[in-house]
Design goal:
Blueprint: H1 2-29, E1 37-45, E2 56-59, E3 62-72, E4 79-87, E5 97-103, E6 108-114, E7 132-134, H2 143-160, H3 162-181, H4 183-196, E8 206-207, E9 227-228, E10 245-246, E11 256-257, H5 262-276, E12 282-283, E13 294-307, E14 311-323, E15 328-339, H6 345-370
Parallel strand pairs: 1-7, 2-6, 8-11, 9-12, 9-13, 10-13
Antiparallel strand pairs: 1-4, 2-3, 3-4, 5-6, 13-14, 14-15
Amino acid sequence: MEVRARYTLMGLFVLAVCAAGFWFVHWLETGGGLADRVTYRVRFEGPIAGLLKGSAVLFNGVRVGEVTATRLEAANPNGVMVDVAVDQTAPVRTDTKAEIDFQGLAGAPVVSLLGGSPGAPLLAKAEPAARVLTAEKDSGQSLTQAGRDALRRINAVVGENAGPLRNAIASIEKFVAALARNADKVDPILAGLERLTGGGAKPVVRMFDLRAATTIPALKAIPPGQLLVPEPRALANFESEKILVRGADLTSLENARWPDVLPRLLQARIVQSFENAKFPRALGRAPDGAPADFQLLTEIRRFEIAEDAAPRAVVELATKVLDKDGKIIGTRVFMAERPLASREPQAAVAALNDAFAQVATELVTWTCASM
């Protein structure tokens, strides 16, 4: 009984192995593989970078088959033919592109099939001999080979242009030497460029004020009525807060400023000069509905630092006095000059203040006498 039992077990084991073998073959022919595949041929022009039988075939990154054979073209020394077995469900079309890609850390080569036009015919429906895809030239080139080719091209370019490169390096050396010889001149040029483009350190603005006349002789009589002092008229170069410099080398005044544009500043200081002369009815603006009895119209002709033989402050104002009917009852031009004690900003502003004080004193006295 025991002998018969062992023979029975051995027979069952042999039958199981045979059944497993038949099942494995059936799986290869159906679910695992070969019956539902289509063979295509891919023609490469150049090396195929270590592609071997059994290497994967990807379609848009999805594995759809493997390489079944590789061989050289007898008639073309650069040609390599690669046969691939691909799942028949893969939409390989007549315009599908083929190339070699590299996968994983080791960079294993694979055949990569890329897309195609939806309207192009399926290549699987063609005759077996016509199922050929042609890869682009050098599409099977490895990164190492591509790097070598790039280095060869660079060496060729450098070799062809060795003379011009030597001349360019020599010119750069001459330029650097010229910069070294003129280093003391480079800094001012760069500073000027910074100022021109708004870069560099911002200049410090210095503010100066204009004083009204204070030592005005006592008026013989206080004229009746109100005097309107409108904002003086001036050319555009006076419509600024900058202290005007004409023909004088006073770079120290570049950042000197009045507290307001010159016409408004002069209007305020002329009104204040009348007040200092005990004439309180001088107004910069007439009240609504109350016209002034007189108007003092002023034109700025000069208010600047000028230089002929020596720098000096020049103030020149042209004035007209009008009655309430707009009739001119007096006209006069006032002018005063003062030399500069030095070329410092304080000296220039002091000279302008002295010249304006003289003009304002004469203007107030004459206006009150004309009203």
